[in-house]
Amino acid sequence: MSLSFEEVKKLKENAEIKTQAFINGKYADSLDGDTFDKVSPIDGKVIAKIASCKQADVDLAVSAARQAYEKGVWSDITPEQRKNILYAFANLVEAHHMELATLETMDMGKPISNSIGEIRRCFNGIRWFAEAIDKLYGAVATTRPSINAQIVREPYGVVAAIIPWNYPLMMAVWKFAPALAAGNSVVLKPAEQSPLTLLRIAEFAKQAGIPDGVFNVVPGYGETAGQALALHMDVDKITFTGSSEVGKLIMQYSGLSNMKRVSLECGGKCPNIVFPDAYDLDDVAKQTAGAMFYNSGQVCDSPTRLLIHKSIKESFLKKLIEYSKEYMPKNPLDPACSMGSVVTGEQMERILNYIEIGKAEGAKLKMGGKQVLCESGGYYVEPTIFSDVNNNMRIAQEEIFGPVLSVIEFETEEEAIEIANDSIYGLCAFVWTSDLKKAVSLSKKLKCGKILINSTGDGDWSVPHGGFKQSGFGRDKSIESIEQYTQTKLTWIEL
Ligand code: NAD
């Protein structure tokens, strides 16, 4: 869709910003009336004051979710009814998708063209899970003839979801769509940096026919609203996407409370291994730049460690730098923008600090490294590339979550595997080669939840996403994610 800057500015003027929590089918202030400032990273200006939920608000939301679940207003209707309502919900998201895309860009600074694509994936995702609902079966076990042993999957009841800021609506859809499809009630906590789209769609959930109490949104800080949810005695399951550091806390909160089930999608430091026999090195350079600087590098499965074969290092770097120039930051509301701001001033400082660390560690700064568009008041960092990085350096080991690429050289396949696996993370690895045997062999040896061969994207609802090691456990997307929101029950009948 071709859109002009002027049209996007108009969308911005008309976008509806919801500032209140959504509990039991109604928008409401936090009980103590407290709010936090929502700053747009585009220009550093406060655009809203959002309800800051605390324990008491979380208690209300969980209680509403519990009552709705126990009454069976959602869990006990027919699968077909649930499917139709989720479809209606998706249709409303689709009908408002340009507004939602504009809100997403205002909220966290991603290019408007990317936001539009992501919101499309959101309503398609809700449909994917809606469609799956009445196509799932239980099982009857093979026992002796006098027994009928049925194994069914039941929803947990109340599912809490804690969402990060990098894909504010999409990460929420990854969680609430399968959780609702399975029949649970949900309480969602958006990241304090990016609550706008999730708050906006709450009323669409109600309009679509999702009963009161089944879909709740409690904006607030991690240490207050998030912790209250994770420690809550009446939440049955918590699903979290965010940093590994907070993911570990979530596991502790579960153990300190009611042993609620936990699934975690956490950080990544993904290797992108380029062999000289890749089918088209020019295209690999182009795709690497695109994947690396998408969303200003604030992506858990960004290819942040480029492992390049020594024989092609210099020529590949030259191409990569040329393609990376296309990602010089612009105003993200400009349809011509391919890389916008980073999410907050704090995140920008963190990224700039890592750039200083890289220089001090002895890596060679080949491109970028600075804050730009300072006059805008927003938070913009150049696409940045370090070469001559050693995998022991902090810029190779720690998740920067910004547009900073570390280039590491290798000579043999074994060395590439060793470097790739030398990480606390295990989310995703990319491999570029036209040798099928080598690709399959690497796929077996790389310790990650996801291996992409000659590709940078797995944006399909039918495949699972999730990590090994400290990248977390549990899987989003695909049928596996619906299973994650259910538990098996055996009914053993003596005939
Ligand atoms: P974060 O861990 O700081 O925050 C994530 C969420 O947790 C936010 O909603 C926050 O308010 C909440 N939170 C913070 N402290 C909490 C606490 N003590 N108790 C309960 N909740 C708390 O992460 P972030 O900065 O928002 O997001 C970036 C991180 O998310 C990166 O590490 C990135 O890799 C990860 N991420 C992972 C995936 C994946 O699928 N693996 C996807 C997107 C982002």
TrEMBL record:
The keyword Isomerase does not apply. The keyword Oxidoreductase applies. Residues 34-489 form the Aldehyde dehydrogenase domain. InterPro entries: Ald_DH/histidinol_DH, Ald_DH_C, Ald_DH_N, Aldehyde_DH_dom. One of its GO terms (molecular function) is oxidoreductase activity, acting on the aldehyde or oxo group of donors, NAD or NADP as acceptor. Keywords: Oxidoreductase. Belongs to the aldehyde dehydrogenase family. This is Gamma-glutamyl-gamma-aminobutyraldehyde dehydrogenase. It comes from Ruminiclostridium papyrosolvens C7. The lineage of its organism: Bacteria, Bacillati, Bacillota, Clostridia, Eubacteriales.
